[in-house]
Amino acid sequence: MPPRTAVFFHAHPDDEALLTAGTMAMLAAEGHRVVLVVATAGERGLAEMGPGEELRATRLKELYESAALLGCARVECLGYGDSGLSPQGGSAEERPDDAFIDADSEQAAGKLAAILEEEKADLLSIYDPAGGYGHPDHVQVHRVGRRAAEIAGTPVVLEATVNRDPLVRLLKLAGKFYRFPPEFDVRTFESAYSASETITHRVNVRKYAKQKRASMSAHASQATGGDSDRTLAVMLKVPGPIYRLVFGTEWYVRRDLPPGTRLSHPLDQWPK
């Protein structure tokens, strides 16, 4: 297989670590060019900052550290404002003037398309239509990414996701032994991410679990803050063998392939 250029488009720093880090490390190790693009710097994320620290700068620094660990050849931030954690980014008055969810989708797609064209990208990774768990910036990544691929003529678009079926079963089982916070509703995951039958790629990244874990660790600011345990902090406490088992698969949906397709590598079944 000739070297390809794969662009991974994410909403915030640390999203790449959670969803696609293993795939990125794998492609880079195989000699492909991997480019990481984020829409925002994630400056409205929860974090416990030290005196004189500024979250935007800290998160971009962590992003570059993560990208280096994964073998990325280029990192870009489109420069939009983080829309925040609340549904739909909260009220317009609460959001920054440049919030990503308020951005003109065509204009944002043009910015991403310019990178795709400059890189002569063969593949673009975005999110599924639900934006995974529904974060407004993630939903916007799907819309903007789809349009950018159309503008640039990028031949393959993969939607990074999670197989929600075993996830829901696991959460329901965990709920019998662990009391989730009041705001956590397992039922919301029944419509999050993607159903098993729609997933076309199940990529085994256990060989790159060390790089994936290091990528997560690079985003240290996102392991602190808030009134309860942060997701990233909990993930990093998982013992190595269990980590490889739980986080050793990354899932994607490629819409130009029929449902039920089962591929194990992001570059399988390349368009003719």
Automatic annotation (TrEMBL):
It comes from Nonomuraea guangzhouensis. This is PIG-L deacetylase family protein. Gene3D superfamilies: LmbE-like. Its EC number is 3.5.1.-. It is an enzyme of class 3 (hydrolase). GO terms for molecular function: hydrolase activity. Transmembrane segments: none annotated. Keywords: Hydrolase, Zinc. InterPro entries: GlcNAc_PI_deacetylase-related (IPR003737), LmbE-like_dom_sf (IPR024078). It comes from the Bacteria. Coiled coil: none annotated. PANTHER family: 1D-MYO-INOSITOL 2-ACETAMIDO-2-DEOXY-ALPHA-D-GLUCOPYRANOSIDE DEACETYLASE, N-ACETYLGLUCOSAMINYL-PHOSPHATIDYLINOSITOL DE-N-ACETYLASE-RELATED.
